[in-house]
Specification:
heterodimer, A: 760 residues, alpha+beta, Rossmann fold, seven-stranded mixed beta sheet, B: 198 residues, Sortase, Chain: A, eight-stranded mixed beta sheet, 3 helices, 8 strands
Chain lengths: 760, 198
């Protein structure tokens, strides 16, 4: 189907290109039939004027991304069609990929996932080539290993500070050595640059990352982003970005032989250790085959060779009882112990308890218009979700805050009516004084204190003193819980997400008015069933285990666990694992569950799985020496880096002007210690022997990823959910209506004569 | 038709005309006049190096000056709300303070949205190779237009920072549509060509 769409678009584009007057001046272009645009893109592009980029496949996700993109990029200014989205340099033309094969070896034990992606790059041309390959990884994965194989030689990548790694890479590239450099572009998007691939040469690059399996609705899942490499570009000379260079370059573009062109194939093997004989495995995206290779261990493969165009998702389910399920893994790395705790709440729905809800409504000037309508509607939906035994209150704030009542009232008919009247009279104006509203809802407003108090805070978050407000939330949250709901075209999601994190709640974004009902219903369905609150990871006997005092747990503020939503904690302490004794019992996870209306403290059993120290219990990669178990320290480092990135919003310790460099140092240090790629660190591998004659020029090949932009949206969406702002006024309509009025008046006068005084 | 009825009809039609054109005029006047006040606030802000509100009760302040080709400069406001859009283009996602810190390799994407009928009506005429200049008070950034696209309103990727230094101007599309709610957005993308201290 996809192919057909692409073909259709290519034909349309080809036809339009031919039809355009501007291009008709290019004589040789007229002789190119549109079909060839698909088959031999390189040769076409070589003859095109530099301004025309016809991105045949992929179109940077615009075509693939059908549900959200209704139209392609056309602007009929001069009868030209434009398809390419990313085209800062205008001299790109397209050649088939030098990647021909990808093999994926994924191993999952419990919830710990380790994936190795091996790609073979073949240069089909007779030129020396540099390639850049953009590859997506699941959000939260830690890339920590790079292995370059040339013939029988293996070169392992070193983790280095980014600037240094880039320098190392560039030096090797200049010297004609084969080199590979892995950089993090975004938390879930990495690039791999390979320098000096010789004519018809083959290089194998393996990249390994560490991740955790996701859990939702009773099922675990892993995702492998398979949207690899569908769009390619080559350029004749060095990467230069200025426009003036482009025309000269274009002339030198040489068509690369495409007869060798192959589809990009993916081999995939998953080794899944669930320690349960009754595991059901399925995929929602691909046809898979699975079989048990030993009790509790399964091998999963794709049923047919797969062309990489869709993410692969594999899900599995094991039997589960009604107790909270806790998985705990530990691993010794150097002089420190790393651990991972994964808590899944019981599947049975707990009995309903009366609860106390405070709605907070932002009615400041910035909420003017549809944002306020949405916010009020959200509260109205929220009110319908309350039971008669629940109590509630509403706070409305702009320059100052006003509460509906001094004390929370039961959600009976009379009080709901009062609330509706209150909402009907809300008007948007004035400033955004969030501080007063937080003060009121988190501390001063009275309510039934023995019940769980949930504050639903609805705002667009357009404020400028984020850090102070976060501090206020941290200081006054007490036993209450803060849930932020974002409204409007571009809400300040950063603030709202961190406020909710500190307030042990969640952040919800409401996209548009139509979604208010479903989103609020979903939020309330969750809020009704808190499974475990006041979660703590504590130490038993501190005097006996001095080392445990050095424990660092991420995330720092442990969230509540809601029905159906698991959490993952990573910790580290200085010390040694003693597998003989049971030191680990010193580590306790406690939480509160409500049983028959009473808050009951419970202690979760921490059954320990060791990683790496005992070959029989939990060795991720068996006897393969290249695959030695490693991972919990990487996951911990990843969690710590994530925490560090929240510092701009939570920082109270450092001077703001120092913060950026302190964060950079901390991230660099953490990443280097765990040997993972981060914003400030990179992996680089350099072959010792130069293979390319230094005086020869390499061609640069951008092996960009067709859907990289689409995938990265998943990450970005967290930061910038919603839609692009509505930027039209009704002016045109008003103007026309005015003219219709004039026409009516003229018609009226024509029929009755121009007499304003009238006749007797 | 009685005389009375005729008078009512005349008066009614006149009122409709007055209302419609009045509203349209109000939108234009608000958009134009606000820019004058904002330009004063901008001058003060540049001098004092602090955000200056254009009027006392304003919920926003100018963060940059945007010049499209040779046209009158537009003052870009902080805070992407509908209210602010009536007064000027608004900054969507980038923190302009960070711009002065980025080196020549670090990617950024300054996204600005404005109404298609007022401030960004001129985007319709923008062509490839046109120049866009953004003055942040500290620096002057020159961009050259290298991409024009029409996307769905959900297509947030235009706000992504990939590996380039770009500016992204967004307005509603089509330009001459009557409806004020359209699912399409017109996007002008410019690539940084020059950066200088202003």
């Amino acid at each position: 189907m996809f192919k057909i769409i692409v073909l259709g678009i290519a034909i349309i584009s080809g036809a339009s290109v031919l039809a355009s007057n501007r291009l008709a001046e290019q004589p040789d272009l007229n002789s190119v039939p549109s079909g060839v645009v698909l088959g031999v893109p390189a040769s076409i592009s070589a003859r095109n004027p530099p301004q025309i980029n016809i991105n045949v496949q992929g179109s940077n996700g615009l075509i693939n991304h059908a549900p959200n993109v209704v139209t392609n990029i056309f602007h009929v200014q001069e009868g030209t069609l434009f398809f390419d989205h990313v085209q800062a340099d205008m001299a790109k033309s397209y050649v088939p990929s030098p990647v021909i094969n990808t093999s994926v070896d994924m191993r999952v034990s419990g919830v710990v996932e380790r994936t190795r992606v091996t790609q073979t790059f073949v240069n089909p041309s007779s030129e020396w080539v540099d390639a850049t390959y953009v590859f997506p990884v699941p959000v939260g994965a830690a890339v920590d290993e790079l292995l370059m194989t040339i013939g029988s030689r293996h070169i392992e990548g070193q983790i280095q500070i980014k600037e240094q790694a880039i320098k190392t890479f560039n030096q090797a590239k200049q010297a004609g050595k084969k080199a590979s450099l892995v950089l993090q572009k975004r938390p879930n998007l990495f690039t791999n640059q390979i320098a000096n691939i010789g004519p018809n040469e083959r290089i194998e690059i393996s990249i390994t990352y560490q991740n955790t399996a996701q859990y939702a609705d009773g099922e675990y899942s892993v995702r492998f982003p398979m949207t690899l490499s569908q769009r390619y570009a080559v350029r004749a000379d060095n990467v230069a970005d200025s426009v003036s260079d482009t025309e000269a370059e274009t002339a030198e573009v040489e068509a690369i032989d495409t007869s060798d062109m192959k589809q990009h194939e993916v081999d995939f093997v998953l080794r899944l250790d669930t320690q349960s004989n009754a595991t059901q495995i399925h995929s929602t995206t691909h046809v898979i085959e699975s079989h048990a290779i030993e009790p509790g261990v399964y091998e999963v493969m794709l049923s047919q060779d797969t062309i990489a165009n869709k993410d692969l998702v594999i899900k599995w389910r094991s039997a589960q009882d009604n107790e909270p399920m806790v998985a705990h893994y530990q691993q010794q790395v150097g002089d420190a112990v790393y651990g991972l705790v994964h808590i899944v709440p019981p599947q049975t729905i707990p009995e309903l308890q009366p609860k106390h809800t405070i709605f907070v409504l932002d009615s400041s000037g910035s909420m003017h218009g549809s944002a306020l309508t949405q916010a009020v509607q959200a509260i109205r939906v929220g009110l319908t979700q309350l039971n008669e035994v629940d109590s509630f209150n509403i706070v409305d704030f702009d320059s100052d805050a006003r509460a509906l009542w001094k004390e929370a009232k039961l959600a009976d008919w009379e009080h709901l009516q009062e609330a509706q009247t209150f909402l009907a009279n809300v008007d948007s104006d004035g400033g955004t004084n969030i501080s007063d509203a937080l003060q009121m809802s988190l501390t001063t407003l009275k309510g039934p204190d023995d019940q769980l108090t949930q504050v639903i805070f609805i705002t667009d978050g357009s404020i400028d003193n984020e850090a102070a407000l976060i501090e206020q939330v941290a200081g006054s949250i007490g036993q209450r819980r803060l849930f932020t709901v974002g409204i409007g075209a571009a809400p300040n999601a950063f603030f709202m997400e961190y406020a909710a994190m500190i307030g042990k709640g969640t952040f919800t974004y409401i996209d548009n008015v139509d979604d208010v009902q479903s989103t609020m219903t979903r939020l309330f369905a969750k809020l009704i069933h808190p499974a475990l609150t006041n979660l703590q990871l504590t130490l038993g006997d501190e005097s006996r285990l001095e080392a445990l005092k050095s424990i660092e747990v991420y995330p720092k503020v442990l969230p509540d666990i809601y029905h159906g939503e698991p959490i993952v904690l990573s910790y580290r302490y200085t010390g040694y694992l003693d597998t003989m004794s049971s030191d680990l019992e010193e580590l306790l996870v406690t939480g509160q569950m409500r049983v028959a209306g009473e808050a009951t403290s419970i202690q979760l059993p921490l059954t320990v799985n060791l990683i790496g120290s005992d070959p029989n219990s939990f060795n991720l990669f068996g006897s393969d020496p290249n695959y030695q178990a490693k991972g919990l320290n990487k996951l911990w480092a990843r969690a710590k880096i994530k925490e560090i990135t929240t510092w701009p919003f939570t920082n109270t310790e450092y001077l703001p002007e120092d913060l950026v460099s302190i964060m950079q140092n901390q991230i660099t240090e953490t990443a280097l210690a765990a040997k993972i790629v981060s914003k400030y660190t990179a992996l680089v591998a350099v072959d010792v022997t130069p293979t390319k004659p230094v005086d020869m020029q390499s061609n640069a090949v951008d092996v960009a990823n067709a859907k990289a932009a689409h995938l990265s949206r998943q990450h970005q969406a967290k930061l910038q959910q919603g839609q692009l702002p509505q930027t039209a006024t009704p002016m045109g309509l008003l103007w026309i209506l005015g003219w219709i009025g004039v026409a009516g008046l003229i018609a009226h006068f024509a029929a009755n004569g121009i007499s304003l005084i009238g006749r007797k | 038709m009685t005389t009375l009825k005729r008078h009512w009809l005349t008066a009614g039609l006149l009122m409709i005309i007055a209302f419609c054109w009045g509203q349209a005029g109000y939108i234009v006047a608000k958009a134009q006049l606000a820019q004058y006040l904002i330009s004063d606030a901008w001058q003060q802000g540049v001098l004092s190096q602090t955000p200056v509100k254009p009027w006392g009760w304003a919920d926003t302040y100018p963060v940059a000056k945007l010049t499209i080709n040779q046209s009158e400069p537009l003052y870009v406001l902080a805070g992407a709300s509908n209210r602010n859009l009536a007064f000027g283009p608004v900054l969507l996602n980038a923190n302009l303070d960070e711009l002065s810190q980025v080196d020549n390799t670090q990617a950024f994407n300054v996204s600005i949205a404005a109404h298609r009928d007022t401030h960004f009506a001129l985007l319709e005429l923008v062509e490839y190779g046109d120049s866009l200049r953004l003055d942040t008070g500290k620096e002057s950034l020159s961009f050259v237009v290298d991409d024009l696209l029409i996307v769905d309103e959900k297509y947030l990727s235009v706000l992504d920072v990939d590996d380039k230094q770009v500016i992204t101007l967004i307005t509603c599309y089509p330009f001459d549509a009557l409806s004020s709610t359209t699912p399409l957005r017109y996007v002008v993308r410019g690539r940084l060509v020059e950066k200088s201290v202003s």
